[in-house]
Amino acid sequence: MKGSWRDRPTGSWFSRIWRPWVSLSPFRGRGRSINEPKTVGIRDLVASPDEVQHRPARRWSVIGGFFILLFLILMVRLFTLQVTDYSSSVQAVDANSLRVSTIPASRGVILDRSGEPLVANVQTTEIRLSRAEANLYPPIKGALASLTGLSVKQINADLNNQQYDPYQPAPILSHAPAKDVEFIKLHPKEFPGVSVLDVATRSYPNGGSVGAQVLGYVGPITGAEIKANPGKGYQTDSTIGKTGIEAFYEQYLRGHDGTSTLEVDAFGNILGAVHTTEPKVGDSVVLNIDTGLQKALDGYLASDILRVRRTPDPTNGKLPPAINGAAIVLDPNNGDVLAMSSYPSYNLNSFVNGLSNTTFKQLLSEGAFNNYAIQGLYTPGSTFKMITATAELQTGVFPADKTVDDTGSFKVPGCLQGYHGCVFHDDEAAGAGLIDLPTALTVSSDYYFYNLGYLFWAQQSKYGQTPIQNVASEYGLDQYTNIDLPNEGQGRVDSPSVRKTLHAEAPKSFPNVSWYTGDNIEMAFGQGTTAITPIEMANGYATFANGGTRYEPEVAAAVVNAHNKLVVRYQPRVLGHVSLPAGVRNPILQGLEGVVMNPKGTAYGTFHSIVNFSLSSFPIAGKTGTASNVPGHEPNSWFVGFGPVAHPKYVVLCVVAEGGYGADAAAPVVAETFNYLVAHPIRPVTLRAKLSVPTTSKTTTTTISAKKSG
Questions:
Q1: For the chain, which terminal residue's Cβ has fewer other Cβ atoms within 10 angstroms, N or C?
Q2: Which structural domains are found in the chain, ordered by start?
Q3: Mean pLDDT of all residues in 359-369
Q4: Structure confidence at residue 415 (pLDDT)
């Protein structure tokens, strides 16, 4: 039948495919019984040789094409590696064979104004162990433990410390004894992978307790600090300035690390050194600090606070807790910080020799790491009266020579009888009688300044709501001083706007948002929510002492490099001015001088019992402050003084938190400090550098970048 599968050619592909099926079909051979067994042979499954077409050329074409394709792919890949990605390929190969280790640079030293070191470096010997050698020869750990006295557990901990570069030997023992070092050098085969390295660590020629908060300390860098300083070359085993001058001038002190390029095999084993770049020692920072004065001030403050804690308050018989304190000496003519102390304190050697976690937590809880001179916020009390007196005479709200009758109790005019806040009392029960402004400052009359607070608020249509606060801002009491130390606090002067801001931030702590006459009265004599840092108050009085120029307090005088050449010289920087013509300044100065020189002055007895120089030859002016705290707490004790009065050279401030009366707790520190200053006048800064290098103003880019590093 035409077209059927039986009529197709025997050798066709169709027959070859279907023949096995046909041989098994029940319809093949009609005469065969349905139940007859079906036989299948090999020839039924496989075509015969004469039925297959021979095509060897096609097979070779397929095989050849496959290999040509592989060759083309190979050529493209080689072109990519050798031409397109050549640079990255070389870097990848080098990365697999070379490792770069950091050689830390020695930090620059910190010098005082005479060129004497406050912070230096000492060369010590360190024993290190290669991780690779320790893995290949584990017994070396035991040998090293036997020699040094360390435990194998401690050595393993040092080897696994992630702080250190894995391709650099891990420090095992610092300050290694000479006998151990000598033994290792004489028996190198017994200590494979052990090396001895001379390293520089911080040392403190004055014992580590002098000016600790100002100088600051260094420590291992953290991951957060590395991220915060991208591209500056810090490694996981780097050290960095943590506080004080060490932190603020880190960019100069740290120097430039060297590098050691090592060749390693595929397993990370070190094969040898390829190239070494020597480290560059850091620059040195010269401070305005005088070491002798700093040491004396630290001692005066610490001794005074311990004395206050043992001396009952004469008004209530309680022992003042005197929880912390600060003292500062400034040069009012340029802003130089001659000394700065904070209590409680700590010893900087603790961070070199090792500080236990328990001791660290204890010091932290005590506040020993705080620099209260720039971070402490204290209610200023009567030290604020100088600011109010300036506002009084600038505005003319009340003449300096006009008297008021200080009866000891000031009644707010127009206040409803029996209303809380209608009557304000002097600290002393008895009033001072008829007094003018100079006398009010000398005897620290609260009544006089209650009256000023009332007058300003009653005439706010003429003087505005914040005439006193405006003057306080000119003195810098509500703003950063920009001192070159990290973590400076910012003071605040109570006002209607400040009251609202504090309430918004902490409603429970500051529930009152309204501003009344009584609030203005309290603010006028340094109470309320006003809180000032010691450096702000010292700088405010320095501004008054020099006639009205407010300078930026400066701890550092200059930066010099390792070759004794000047890098930066910091010049005095003016931050602002206060208008202090003779008609304003002289009555206030008369009152401040009377505090020390007049027998009625609040600090007369203290100074005349402590000073060992002639006050007539070196007269001192100043102001006590006894600032109330919350009920049940002793007041903050203040004293700030300057002298000699005619041409002030020094401003000295002391504050003791919850120390009691200013004349009793703070004034003795200032008096003792003037004893030292009169006997040891401060000399000019010695740079020990080639001054042919032009000095730079603090407004230059170089100086600003240095300041911002803190």
A1: N
A2: 5-51 (no CATH), 99-286 (3.90.1310.10), 291-373+601-679 (3.30.450.330), 381-556+566-577 (3.40.710.10)
A3: 91
A4: 84
